[in-house]
Amino acid sequence: MKSDTIIKKIIDCGVIAVIRAKSSEDALKIAEYSFKGGIKALEITFTTPDAEKAIKEFASSFKESIVGAGTVLDEESAKKAYLNGAQFIVSPCFDDFVNEFCKSVDIPYFAGCLSPTEIYNAVKKGVKVIKVFPGNLCKPSYFKDIHGPFPHVKLLPSGGVNLDNIDEWIKNGAVAISAGSSLIEPYKTGEYEKITDLAFKYVEKVKKARELYK
Question: pLDDT digit string (tens) for 47-58?
Fold first, then answer.
């Protein structure tokens, strides 16, 4: 299945760069510099003006990348993202219509959930990767607690993830991590090269943590 292949590629990389920018042009630059640092999975959020244009251009220019759309809140946005080349869809919450659309075109839907009930209901509806959001509201050990009753659920933290706590997220069962503001912070001062340096550090941190806690 196409969805399973995309999920595997994202998990193999281990890091999703969450890109929120003031324009599609800025989003493209952030994505490019993140990609240079080894992050192959790029989530361009729909809070970015003309996000679909950035998704389309980046997907066509960087064939080895896995480009997705973030902050997708309705089916119309999901369709727009997909038609412009998005290979996965991310939401801050679970939405039935977005979920059904993603299943119909066989791409992954990373639905935002926090409580055990939300996680259970999303998995029951076919969601294969749960975006635990906001991640800064729980400790990494929360993943270990969730895997007690739900051992096979794939959990991905989003929010509150940084270079200092990646080890703990991986140790407690995160299949990959999302890096947002802590990764793209240099964008605010136009220091894009620093994003590449940070991207490399994120990928290496995940790799080393996996080796340590496998």
Answer: 999 999 999 999
